[in-house]
Amino acid sequence: MVQVKNAAADLYAAQEAESLGEVQVEVAVLFRDAAARRAQLGDVPLVQVQRADLELLHVQNELTNAQAERLARQAALTQLIAQPPETPLRVALPLATGAVVIPSGEGARFARASSCPAYARNDTFLLS
Predict the structure, then answer these.
(1) SS3 call for 128
(2) CA pair distance 120, 92, nearest whole angstrom
């Protein structure tokens, strides 16, 4: 059961890192667009646009890494709860009383932890 809770916490952290990365990309796009407009008007040198482009590429790369980490953490959790690797999962807090795994797709069903061979307690998980 500890492995499942740790895997769920790891997936939650990866989900949050991915969400943060998405916001960072949105902000970097805004800064790049603003720098491009200001450069067109002659307010800033072209190097400012290049710096903004570089920062955008940097945060896009970080987002890609965060997405890969989330997928890896999701695969680890699905393996522990005896679900197919392609099962789309989202973890919601609180994790202290047992993880609640929320599907990102339609057609969810409830399953007891005792029905999965990896653990024996009756904490409830929401699986797709």
Answers:
(1) coil
(2) 21
